[in-house]
Amino acid sequence: MHNISFLQNENLPSFAQFCISDSRYEDLRTHFAKKTYRAGECVQSEGDTITHFGIVVSGILKAVSYSRDGEELCNAYFEEEDVFPEFLYLTGNRHYTYLLYVEKRAEVLWIPIFLLEEMLSADAGLVSALLCYVSQRGLKNQLYLNCLNYQTVRERIAYWIMGVRKIEARQEQEVHMPRSQRIFANMLHVNRSSLNQELKQMEREGYFRLDKERLLHVEGERLKELL
Questions:
Q1: CA distance 177 to 160
Q2: Which residue from 35, 38, 143, 221 puts its CA 20 to 30 A from 59's CA?
Q3: How far, in Å, CA of 146 to CA of 132, rounded?
Q4: If DSSP codes are grouped into helix, strand and coil, which group holds residue 152?
Q5: How far is CA 113 from the centre of its chain?
C-alpha cells in the first residue's frame, strides 16, 4: 500500500482552522458569513437545500428528528470547530435530512458550497484536513454506538474513555469530555443523574479526577479491567 504523505502531517491545522484563519483565504472570507443564533433557534429544517458548509465557531448545535409520538431524537451534536453537513454533502445528498437546532447560543461561519469546492480543488492540504475531520467524527460516532453494547453506566463510561484516547492518540492521562453532562448522557443513552452519580463514584474510587470538562489522572489499565 502506498503512503499518502500529505495525510500524515501531524502539524496540519484542523479544517476549521484552515478556513477561519489561514492567510491564503483572506480574500475569500469576504464571501463567508458569520451569524449568531440563540438557544432553541432552528437553523435548518428537514428538506432544506444545502447551499453552505457550516463551521461552529462557538456554542453547540444539534441534529434532531422526531418520533411519531413527538419524542425528540438527537442524532448528533456539533461543537466548536465541528463542520456540517459533512456526511450528507460528501455522500451526494443535497438536502438536510434532519432539523438543526441550537443547543447552546452559537456562532456559525457559513461558507458557500461553490466556494468551498474551489478551495478544495486548489489545496491538497485542505482536502487532507477535511478527510481527517470526517474520519475522526466517524470514529467518534461509531464509538458511541459501540458503547451501547455494554449494559452498565460504568462500563459505558470506561469504554468511551478508552475509545477517545485511541481515536485522539492520547498517551497522557487526560481526556476532554463533551461540553455538557446532559449531552454526554444523551450520547451514552443513560440517565443524566445516573451518569453524574457514577462519574463521582468512579472518581472516589480513583479511576480519574473530575475537573470541569476534563478527566485527569485517567487510570487506563484499571478502566480496561471493567470491560
A1: 10
A2: 143
A3: 21
A4: coil
A5: 21
Beta-sheet pairing, 52-66 with 33-37: unpaired
pLDDT (tens digit per residue) in 74-117:
889 999 999 999 889 889 899 999 999 999 999 999 999 999 99
In angstroms, the CA 220 to CA 173 distance is 8
Query: Could you tell me the residue ranges of all domains in the chain?
Result: 5-136, 148-224
> CATH homologous superfamily for 5-136?
Jelly Rolls (2.60.120.10)
The CATH number of 148-224, from 3.30.160.100, 3.30.450.20, 3.40.47.10, 1.10.10.10, is 1.10.10.10
Cα–Cα distance measured from residue 67 to residue 88, given in angstroms and rounded to the nearest whole number: 21
Over residues 30-75, the pLDDT tens digits come to 899 999 999 999 999 999 999 999 999 999 999 999 888 888 888 8
Q: What is the mean pLDDT of the chain?
A: 89
Give the span between the Cα atoms of 29 and 25, in whole angstroms.
6
